[in-house]
Structure formats: C-alpha cells, structure tokens
Design goal:
Shape: globular
Helix content: 10-25%
Order of helices and strands: HHEEEEEEEEEHEEEHEEE
Radius of gyration: 19 Å
Strand content: over 45%
Structural class: mainly beta
Distance between the termini: 34 Å
Length: 270
C-alpha cells in the first residue's frame, strides 16, 4: 500500500564510510531478526472502497481494494486513481498457511503526483526482481536475482497490523524499496496506543501502530544526518473480533507529502 525509494549519495557515503564501519555491521546484523507475519485471521474475498487525502484534507485520489481466493492463495489489488491522472497500482499474490508468504508483487506509480515513477515486479519464489531504469531520457527494463527473505511484505503491509501478535512489543518485517536500484529495508512496527472513531453515532475504539523504516548499512547510518531518513508511517486497525484496516498516514514515496489513506463509504444521490 505504500512504496519506499531512495536516491543515491554514493560519493558522500564513500568519503565517510570508514567512520561508521562498526555501525554498519550492527545495522546489517539487525536485518536477520525480521520475521514472517503470523496468520491470526485468514483473508477472504472482499471489495473495499478507499480514499486518499492531501495534508489539508482534500480528496486527491479514489481507490479500490479487491481480494479473491484460490485455494490457499490470495490475489490482492489496490489501485488509486488520482484527480491529476496519476496512478498507484499494486497487485500481489500470497499464501496464507501458518504465516503469510508473498509469491509475487507488481507495483506501478506514475503520473504528475510521482516525481520518480516506479515499475517494480517481484517474484519471491524465483528470487528475481524486474524494474525500469530511466537514464538520459531513455528507459530500460532490468532483471536481477536477489536473496529475497521469506518475510517480505510488499503489498501486504496492512496484514502486519491486522495480525500483530497480542502482547508483543514490536515486529520486524522486510520490504523491497523500489527505486532505480531496489534495496531491502526493515519495517519496525510497534503498537502506539489507541484512538476512538465513530460509525454513525456509535463510538468505537481502534489500535494505532507506528512503522519505522530501517534502511540498514552505511546508508541507514547516514540517512538521518543528511535528511534522507524516510518519515514514520502511522496505521490504525479496528478493535474487536476481527481487526480491520481503517487508516494510514504517511508518504507513498521517498520524501513525499504526508497523505492519508482511509476506508470510504458510498454517498447516495436522490
């Protein structure tokens, strides 16, 4: 439901890499502690309406989320159609046994709302990643083999908070950030209190989570120093017998504006 991208600062990073060599080892070792999402609530066929709002509350895109079931496989698609013609479109296939496991993911971001377009395809079982690279005004498709972890959550981020283990302090999962050179990062997910909301005139309670992006390696050590650390993302799910994603606040791309994704409801004309 969101994308992360990073811009390269190789010259600067190489010039000071000797200062942080010990910290790099710690950051890289920390990636090994990520874990798959446990299946607390299995997904079923569903259709949801979504809306995307700007920081000042204006609706800038309308969205749809569709999930269909084929045995133990779930096919999910989330698409936002922006008022300016931009598109954010992500299709995922995953299994749900004891844990959720990503099989494939294809994420496209293009149009005026996205300064750096993304077209990233992941084949988790085949450990291949396909992405478009734009250089000197030309585009080319590049395919790379990557050691993709089993806890990859591209296209599955809302499942992390919907299935967050009870009484657990935090959870770490892996995410492949799309850019001209995709790289693995870690999402550190922590409970962050509770909020209330209304359905009609009834007050209900929600759980809030904070998602912090750990870049890892030299870039992760330096990013906060040069203002490149991605903003934290906030997510809300309903309390009750079946947790349901309600809202997400955060950027959909690196250094992007803080947008709000919410569940929408129909309005009726007479």
């Amino acid at each position: 439901m969101f994308a992360i991208a990073f811009q390269s600062r190789q010259g600067f990073l190489l010039a000071i890499s000797f200062i942080v060599s010990a910290l790099v080892f710690i950051a890289l070792a920390d990636r090994a502690s990520a874990e798959p999402i446990p299946v607390k609530e299995k997904q079923g066929a569903m259709y949801a309406f979504l809306v995307l709002k700007s920081p000042d509350g204006r609706v800038i895109a309308d969205g749809d989320q569709v999930e269909t079931i084929d045995g133990d496989k779930v096919r999910s698609r989330v698409i936002f159609r922006f008022r300016d013609g931009s598109i954010d479109d992500e299709s995922s296939v995953y299994t749900q046994g004891a844990v959720f496991r990503l099989l494939t993911d294809h994420h496209i971001q293009k149009g005026p709302s996205f300064p750096d377009p993304v077209d990233l395809s992941i084949n988790a079982s085949g450990r291949t990643v396909r992405f478009r690279v734009a250089k000197t005004g030309k585009e080319k498709v590049q395919t790379e083999h990557m050691d993709l972890p089993s806890d990859l959550v591209n296209g599955l981020t809302s499942l992390v908070v919907e299935n967050f283990p009870k009484n657990q302090a935090e959870m770490k999962v892996s995410y492949l950030a799309g850019s001209s050179k995709p790289r693995l990062v870690t999402l550190l997910v922590k409970p962050d209190g509770e909020d209330v909301y209304r359905i009609g005139g009834v007050i209900r309670h929600s759980k809030k989570f904070k998602v912090h992006i750990e870049i890892g390696g030299i870039a992760g050590v330096i990013a906060p120093l040069i203002g490149k650390q991605p903003s934290d993302i906030e997510m809300w799910v309903s309390e009750g017998e079946v947790p349901i994603f309600l809202k997400m606040v955060g950027p959909l791309y690196a250094n992007g504006p803080i947008w709000t994704t919410e569940i929408a409801c129909p309005t009726w004309s007479k």
